């Protein structure tokens, strides 16, 4: 069980880091972008194989708010990754160069838009599982969940990440990428490359923390009804 958990963590971490590199094709170049994309999809398949039991439970049991959101998010991710893979291969200039595929602006626009939709979708997906990471971190560090100082520090960190994510969303013009089919990306070479990765990571983190804290508040148990003969107004 421990080996499986470690493998799952390594696969998910590697997939996330490579995904951030895949967005940086203006920095890495087209050839590296394609090979990184292939690696991401191999890890995506491995992730689904490890978590294959989830597919068997889709039509079983009761659906809570969290489960409904998770199912919708997972379905959207599978669809998004399929679109990105197909449109990416159809305009390949490195991996499938021997096929001399024509590609085209329409494929590029669909590929780019779908890829950028994957960013918030992955953020939501991680946010739905963030409680598991929090519990694991507490267990490994020996910090109790009742430690208010650590809880406050975690909330402040989450708020800072979210704030940077909002700035990065405007800086990377995410609205145009998600809704206007913006097919060309850009990155000023005078800016350090590390800033690009920090911006993309913060955008993903924005959706992670918004999802985590929104569901945490939504799932909070309602306060007990007041006692007494007179019903509350």
Summarize the structure.
By secondary structure, the chain is an all-alpha fold.
Structure description:
The chain has 233 residues and is mainly alpha-helical. The chain is 72% helix and 0% strand. The protein has helices at residues 2-22, 25-28, 30-50, 53-56, 65-90, 105-128, 130-141, 148-171, 174-179, 193-218. Helix 5 (65-90) runs antiparallel to helix 6, helix 6 packs across helix 10 and helix 8 (148-171) crosses helix 10. The longest helix is centred in the first third of the chain and has 26 residues, at 65-90.
Mean pLDDT, nearest integer? 83
Structural class: mainly alpha
Low-confidence stretches: 229-233
- Count of separate DSSP helical elements: 10
Radius of gyration: 21 Å
Sheet with the most strands, sense and barrel status: none
Strand elements, count? 0
Helix proportion range: over 70%
Shape, principal axes of CA atoms: globular
H/E series: HHHHHHHHHH
Distance between the termini: 52 Å
Strand content: under 5%
């Amino acid at each position: 069980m421990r080996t499986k958990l470690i493998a799952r963590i390594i696969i998910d971490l590697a997939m996330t880091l490579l995904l951030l590199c895949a967005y940086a094709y203006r920095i890495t170049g087209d050839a590296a972008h394609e090979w990184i994309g292939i690696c991401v999809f191999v890890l995506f398949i491995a992730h689904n194989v490890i978590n294959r039991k989830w597919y068997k439970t889709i039509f079983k049991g009761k659906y809570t708010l969290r489960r409904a959101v998770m199912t919708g998010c997972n379905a959207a991710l599978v669809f998004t990754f399929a679109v990105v893979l197909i449109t990416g291969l159809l305009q390949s200039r490195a991996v499938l160069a021997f096929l001399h595929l024509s590609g085209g602006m329409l494929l590029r626009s669909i590929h780019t838009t779908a890829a950028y939709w994957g960013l918030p979708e992955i953020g939501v997906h991680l946010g739905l599982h963030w409680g598991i990471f929090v519990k694991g971190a507490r267990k490994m560090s020996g910090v109790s969940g009742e430690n208010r100082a650590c809880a406050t520090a975690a909330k402040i960190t989450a708020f800072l990440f979210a704030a940077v994510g909002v700035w990065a969303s405007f800086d990377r013009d995410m609205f145009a990428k998600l809704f206007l089919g913006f097919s060309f990306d850009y990155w000023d070479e005078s800016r350090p490359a590390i800033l690009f990765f920090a911006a993309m990571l913060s955008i993903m983190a924005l959706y992670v923390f918004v999802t985590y804290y929104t569901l945490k508040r939504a799932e909070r148990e309602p306060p007990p009804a007041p006692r007494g003969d007179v019903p509350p107004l």
